[in-house]
Design brief:
Length: 121
Amino acid sequence: MLGSIDLKAVTAADVLAMVRCVEARGVLDVSRRLKQHVSQIYRFAIPQGWAERDPAEHLRDLPKAKSRVRHMARVGVDELPALVRAIDGHDGDETPRRRAPASSLRMRTPGFCQLSRRAPL
């Protein structure tokens, strides 16, 4: 914890240890915001004379990079009839079957949806 340490005594290693501790929990976004929060405190403290420099200033490149978000693959037009058949043949929850006709028409622009009709399977 840095809360009990004097602002002038906090080093870059202290801030880095705190950030790494949060990163170890797997919350990379929180670790980045934590480092930003420390810098905000020092941006206020330096003009007041409570500190002389920001210890988080040189830690800009050290936080771990965010993992890349992987979205579901897009369904092509040629694969759509098979997908609708699979949804219609689903034996589980009724929710996908009820939503299938409306969701299949939301793939394109609104003008395209108005002109398209659902082909018989």
